[in-house]
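Put briefly, the fold is written as integer tokens. The lines below illustrate.
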Amino acid sequence: MNLKEAFRFQNKLQSLMEEAQSILGNEDNITRVQNTYLRKKVMKQFEDETTEVVPSTEYSGQITSVAEFLLYLLRERELLTAAVCRAKSRLDLPAGLDGEVSLNARRQDAARLLRRMAGLRSSEVVIPNGGTGYCFNNEGNQVSYRCDVKRVTTINFDRNRIRKMCAELSRKADAVSSALDAALVTTQVDYAAPFDVNDTFAEAFGVFTGEAD
């Protein structure tokens, strides 16, 4: 498989582990509850009755196998992670795959900011009754008043330089993105998936227990 497929399978292993942990973390699944109604103690003509609480999962009878499956998934995650690390180490990227992905995200953030700055325009608006003040009336009393406000907004940076910086940064980010995409599909990972990435939990568990159809 290539790196892109390996990352997808890592996510699959993680989701299956979380599902197994959810099953094992539910006490109703890992215990058997039996209730005995002691009717004979209060009513001699009745017999005691024993019932069992119905488990909430179909895996209640295979809990030990589910625990073993969880550890199996963890071992597969360890093997795949090691194989991915070896594959990454072979890449000809200055900051490595993870470093370049992180750096390019920052480049794209900065390019979006510069693009927004370059799109700003000077403006002039009148805000009705936007201003307040105080004055003295004919009786000598201080009173408040309101007035319109003319607001003029102008940019205080060199738009052409900002546009140039944005264009250069965007070109570099696009080039690195293309290189990263190519690396994901051309770099091989020495790992064989034990089941299909599209398998459900039940299907993957069936492969593990040998009960798959």
